[in-house]
Amino acid sequence: MNFRSxxxxxxxxxxxxxxxxxxxxxxxxxxxxxxYYRLDFDQARARLYSSELALEYVAEDAQxxxxxxxxxxxxxxxxxxxxxxxxxxxxxxxGDSRIPRFISGTLDIQKFSAKEGADIExxxxxxxxxxxxxxxxxxxxxTQLEVIEQERGYAYDAGEEDAGDAxxxxxxxxxxxxxxxxEDAN
Length: 186
Description:
There is one protein chain. Helices cover 23% and strands 39% of the residues. It has 3 helices and 11 strands, in the order αβββββαββββββα. The protein has helices at residues 3-24, 84-87, 170-185; strands at residues 27-30, 43-48, 52-58, 66-71, 80-83, 88-91, 93-94, 97-98, 101-111, 119-130, 133-147. The longest helix has 22 residues, at 3-24. It is globular and about 40 Å long.
């Protein structure tokens, strides 16, 4: 085996090791964007806020090099494909570097339930502006959902019979409808 063959073999092994390390963290990131911006991370997490679902790839120093946000659609989040240019964004920062400008992308949610600790599985593909060129980024995530904030009327705990209180006011009726919509989505 000559030096070039050995170098190529070791390079492939190191890349495979790096990708497997990321996938053990609950997700993976790949693409030509890695030539311009550091994509390494230690853990992937999914957080539900009152206004968005955030999928975050978090580095050891707590910085978030990649953050995919999906604005909450009317009604419940459902499995399916979302256009991130229309319904979300991809942002991030690593040290003094911000992720290049997001142009377009899709988020495909394969598994989701708006319950604390529920499994979420999703993949995404995106394009970024890097100088005069465009770069790509794709990834996947498989983790448990953290519910950070609850939007009024958005029933995130589908395990309850009625997300509202027993008073029968409009707020509890709205919450009950949210639970029904959530159950219909699953």
